[in-house]
Amino acid sequence: MTEPTVPTPEPLPTPQDAAPTTPAPVLPSVSAPTTPSAPVPTQPSTPAAHASAPVPSEAAPVPPTQPTSTTPAASESAPVPGRRARGPHDAFAAVRDEVAKAVVGQESAVTSLLIALLCRGHVLLEGVPGVAKTLLVRSLATALEVDTKRVQFTPDLMPADITGSLMYSVKSEEFSFKAGPVFTNLLLADEINRTPPKTQAALLEAMEERQVTVDGVGHKLPEPFMVIATQNPVEYSGTYELPEAQLDRFLLKVELPLPERDVELEVLARHSRGFDPRNLGGAGLKAVATISDLDAAREQVAAVQVAPEVLAYIVDIVRATRQSPSLAMGASPRGATALLSTARAWAWLSGRQFVTPDDVKALAPATLAHRVSLRSEAEIEGITAHSVLTTVLNSVPVPR
Questions:
Q1: What is 304-395's CATH topology?
Q2: Cis link prior to 224 (omega < 30° from 0)?
Q3: For site-directed labelling of 21, which of 106, 255, 298, 372 has its Cα 20 to 30 A away?
Q4: In order along the chain (400 residues), what is the average pLDDT of each group of 10 residues?
Q5: What stretches of 14-164 show up as alpha helix (H) in DSSP?
Q6: Global confidence as pTM
Q7: Fold classified for 15-61+72-301
């Protein structure tokens, strides 16, 4: 079954058309997660079926009649059209299809966000303006039926503008905590490198501890919680480079490239048919998965087996980055644990209960590239972190 990953009603480009720089190793197998998720006992042939391709057993009821007998595990009663996916694999395949109704040609970025959600991690998106970074996050929040907030980072943004602060009430004559925009499920930190380090650091506790402390009192963040930060790779005037300590907090760094010609043509075709990125409901996007689906998926990911040989392979890759003559700083043990987590999630999305060396190699660039630092002489010679990682992956023996 080699169908494209995004089986939307309109003809969409194949995943190969959108091979970005960072997640390129992920893209060739984007269709893999969809195919293995078919062998669910009660699922017919297509794992990501939605309203345009109804399941044969559900074809009889008319839309007003909810087929409750075919969705015994449904935990929500939200009045959305169509049916909800019945298993974690089906749910994540349906989320990918739903996001594709609004975002074209960014299948690798969608997969990376799903991996980060499964691993309870955060993502740094890098791309020029206008490549659907904000639309991608909003579409994902709609498909998962979770809350999302967007913060535009500016040089005058204060930490309290993100975390919240104490407000004095004249009526009660006491201070009370007013939560900031960080209290959400998906926080879009737009152009995070445009705000000073003091404000950037306000996110560190939230990203690592999943709480914020105001006036000595800790306030837990909702679950799930993920920071999706963006930065412009072209314009560096008036920006503050993220320190290594904060870059290390991001599970993945994903580069969003400019679209290929046929992808851009499909974008214009959708807009000519009336697509409005500010009205996702009008584009047909709806909730197809729930937080309970995400929790169930996380439990299954935690059960994915990793052989001792694969663990040793991950360690050898990380240690090889510390010995590379082109790098001033290699990946830390946190990078090794991050690579283990992302490889596990990718194996689960691919329909397997075990991790292979190919899973590790596929996720290594997006997981480790932002955790290493190039020597100045290597930068002068035009060497990049991705080229160094490619050399490392080719030099480390692959377990058989």
A1: Helicase, Ruva Protein; domain 3 (1.10.8)
A2: yes
A3: 298
A4: 38 37 40 39 39 38 39 37 64 93 92 96 93 94 95 92 90 88 96 90 88 89 95 79 87 93 94 91 90 95 96 97 94 96 96 96 96 93 94 94
A5: 88-99, 107-118, 133-144, 160-163
A6: 0.77
A7: Rossmann fold (3.40.50)
